[in-house]
Design goal:
The complex is a heterodimer.
Chain A (H helix, E strand, L loop, with lengths): L5 H6 L6 H40 L24 E3 L3 H15 L10 E3 L6
Parallel strand pairs in A: 1-2
Chain B lengths: L1 H13 L1 H4 L2 H18 L5 H14 L33 H5 L1 H4 L2 H13 L3 H5 L3 H7 L2 H12 L4 H8 L6 H11 L4 H13 L1 H12 L2 H4 L11 H18 L4 H15 L4 H25 L3 H4 L2 H31 L7 H4 L7 H13 L6 H26 L1
Helix pairs in contact in B: 3-4, 4-13, 4-18, 7-12, 7-17, 7-18, 9-20, 9-23, 10-11, 10-20, 11-12, 11-23, 12-13, 12-23, 13-20, 14-20, 14-22, 16-17, 17-18, 22-23
The chains are: A mainly alpha, B mainly alpha.
Chain lengths: ~120, ~400
C-alpha cells in the first residue's frame, strides 16, 4: 500500500528538526489516546445498552413474604459452574486446588466456568 | 607429497573454520545464550527458540542459508546478483524471508493473535484502553531520541515501533519505512518481547509502592456474546475511518477475533489459532533470527538500534505503570498499577508478568484477567501508533 507521507508533502526532504519531531510525537501520542478513548466510550455505551437489555429481560424478583433465609453453611458454596471439556471430578479438583493455594475458603470463591484450554501457543 | 598438501589446503579453504569471522563467533555465542534462556529458563520458548536457531544457522560459516543470488530481489542489501542464477537457487531461509519482507507473515500472525484473543476483559473494563494507550509512550520517546541521534524520520519511526513490544507491527512498519533496518529492528523487537520477564519487573518495582502492588481488583462483569461479536467489526470500522493505514494489521486481528467469537466458524478459528499460527511462528522466528548475520549485524549503528529499542521498551512499560498509578488515585485504590505494564502489547507475556508480580506481594491476588485488558488494548494501540507513523512518513 502506498500513502502520501504527510511530513514529506509538507516539508519535502528537509531534515527534521527536534521541534518538528516533538510536535509529531505529541500529536501521535494524543491520537493514540483519542482513538482508544473513542473505543473506550463505545465499549462503555455498548455495555450500558446490553446491561439495560439484560435487566429488562430478567424475571421480576419474587416478593419476599417470609423471613430472609439463613446464609448457607460456611463449608458450602452456591451457584453453578459451566464446565467445558472438563469432568466434574477435574472441576472439583481445580476448585479445591485454588481454594487451598489461595487460602480462601470455597464458600468465598465464585467459579463461573472452567474450560479446557488448548496448549499455549 | 604436493598433491597431499594441495588437498589439505583445499580442505582447509573450503571448511567452515576458514570462513569463520569473529563477528560470527559473537553471534553464535548470542544464539547459544538465547537457546539456553528459551529452553532452560523457559523465556518465551515458542518465540526465542526459533529466533535463536535462525541466528545459529545464519552464522554457521559456508551454510549460506540467507544467500541472495538475485542481487536484492529477495530482500538483501548489498549482495550482488549471480549471473544466470535463478531466484530459487538462493538460500532456503532467504526464500522464506519473502514472507517477512512482504508483511505476509506479520499479518498472518495478527490473524492468529486475533483468534487467540479474548476481548472480554477489555470489554468489561474499558479503562484498560487508557492503559493500553499510555504504554505506547516508549514509541514516541524512542522516535525523538532517534531523531536526536541523526537517523532519518523514516528510520526513527521504524525503530520507535520496537517500543510497542509488538513484533509483527515492528516488522510491518520497518518494511514500509526503513527496510534496510528490518533485521536489527525485528530481532530487537522479538528479543525484548521474549525477555519481558527480565525487563519489566524492576521497572514495576521502581515505580510502585508495596501497597499499590498488593491491590486486589474487583471481579469483572460478564460480557455477552453479542458484544464480543460487535466489538471487532465496530472497532475496525471506526479506526479505518480515522487511520486507514492501520487497517492491514488491525483488519487481520479483528478478522481472527471475529472467527473466534461469531460461533459459526470454529474450524477456521481453530486453524488460525493452532496450525496456521504455529507454522507462521516457526517461519517468522527462524527468518528473523537468520537476519542476524554477525558480519552485517555487529555494527555501531545496529547496536544503537538495539539499545534504543530497549529504552523504548522501558519507557512504554513506565508509561503504562504511571497512568496505572494515576488511575489508582482516581479510583481510590481500585486499580492495581501493575496492570499498566501489561499495556505493552506482547500478548500474553506482559499480562503474565503482571500476574506474577502481583502474586509476589499477595499470593491470593489474581491479576491475570485484569491485565489481559490493557494487554489486548496495547495490541490495538500499537497498530494505531504504527498507522500514524506510516501516514506521516511512508
Amino acid at each position: 500500500m502506498y500513502y502520501l507521507g504527510i511530513y514529506h508533502s509538507l516539508y519535502g526532504d528537509a531534515p527534521m528538526t527536534f521541534g518538528k519531531a516533538l510536535l509529531i510525537a505529541v500529536i501521535g501520542f494524543l491520537l493514540v489516546f483519542l482513538i482508544l478513548g473513542v473505543i473506550a466510550l463505545f465499549v462503555k455505551l455498548l455495555g450500558a445498552v446490553f446491561n439495560s437489555k439484560n435487566k429488562k429481560s430478567a424475571p421480576a424478583p419474587v416478593p419476599q413474604t417470609a423471613a430472609p433465609a439463613a446464609p448457607p453453611p460456611s463449608d458450602r458454596s452456591d451457584g453453578s459452574v459451566t464446565l467445558t471439556n472438563v469432568t466434574e471430578e477435574e472441576a472439583a479438583l481445580i476448585m479445591a486446588i485454588v481454594s487451598n493455594s489461595t487460602g480462601v475458603p470455597l464458600s468465598r470463591l465464585r467459579f463461573d466456568s472452567i474450560r479446557l484450554l488448548e496448549d499455549e501457543k | 607429497m604436493e598433491l597431499i598438501t594441495q588437498v589439505l589446503k583445499g580442505l582447509w579453504e573450503n571448511s567452515g573454520l576458514a570462513a569463520l569471522s569473529w563477528q560470527n563467533v559473537v553471534m553464535l555465542l548470542v544464539s547459544f545464550i538465547f537457546l539456553y534462556l528459551g529452553i532452560r529458563k523457559k523465556f518465551e520458548p515458542l518465540v526465542l527458540v526459533p529466533i535463536a536457531f535462525g541466528m545459529l544457522l545464519a552464522n554457521l560459516p559456508g551454510a549460506d542459508v540467507m544467500k541472495d543470488v538475485t542481487g536484492g530481489f529477495l530482500g538483501s542489501f548489498g549482495e550482488e546478483a549471480v549471473p544466470g542464477a535463478m531466484w530459487y537457487e538462493s538460500g532456503v531461509l532467504r526464500i522464506l524471508y519473502v514472507g517477512v519482507k512482504s508483511s505476509v507473515f506479520p499479518c498472518l500472525i495478527f490473524l492468529g493473535v486475533g483468534a487467540m484473543t479474548d476481548f472480554g476483559p477489555l470489554l468489561s473494563n474499558p479503562v484498560s484502553l487508557v492503559l493500553g494507550a499510555a504504554a505506547q509512550l516508549g514509541i514516541y520517546v524512542a522516535f525523538l531520541a532517534a531523531i536526536l541521534l541523526g537517523f532519518t524520520p523514516e528510520e526513527a519511526a521504524a525503530m520507535a515501533m520496537i517500543g510497542g513490544a509488538d513484533g509483527p507491527t515492528s516488522i510491518f512498519t520497518a518494511t514500509k519505512l526503513a527496510p534496510q533496518l528490518l533485521a536489527p529492528i525485528a530481532l530487537a523487537a522479538y528479543s525484548y518481547m521474549a525477555l519481558i520477564p527480565i525487563i519489566q519487573p524492576p521497572i514495576i518495582k521502581a515505580l510502585t509502592t508495596k501497597k499499590e502492588r498488593a491491590v486486589r481488583m474487583t471481579q469483572l462483569r460478564r460480557v455477552s456474546k453479542t458484544e464480543k461479536i460487535i466489538f471487532p467489526i465496530a472497532v475496525l470500522t471506526l479506526v479505518a475511518f480515522i487511520l486507514p493505514s492501520a487497517v492491514p494489521l488491525l483488519g487481520m486481528l479483528m478478522l481472527g477475533n471475529l472467527l473466534r467469537e461469531c460461533g459459526v466458524t470454529d474450524r477456521l478459528s481453530e486453524t488460525a489459532q493452532n496450525a496456521l499460527m504455529n507454522t507462521v511462528t516457526v517461519l517468522l522466528g527462524i527468518c528473523v533470527g537468520a537476519t542476524a548475520n554477525g558480519t552485517d549485524f555487529i555494527k555501531l549503528r545496529t547496536l544503537g538500534i538495539v539499545a534504543l529499542g530497549l529504552a523504548a521498551f522501558i519507557f512504554s512499560t513506565a508509561g503504562g505503570v504511571l497512568i496505572g498509578k494515576i488511575l489508582y488515585v482516581l479510583t481510590k485504590g481500585k486499580i492495581n498499577p501493575i496492570i499498566g505494564a501489561a499495556g505493552v502489547s506482547a500478548v500474553p507475556m506482559a499480562a503474565r508478568v503482571a500476574q506474577n508480580e502481583g502474586k509476589k506481594y499477595d499470593p491470593a491476588n489474581f491479576l491475570l484477567m485484569h491485565a489481559m485488558g490493557p494487554n489486548v488494548a496495547g495490541v490495538i494501540g500499537s497498530a494505531v501508533a504504527a498507522g500514524f507513523l506510516l501516514m506521516m512518513f511512508s
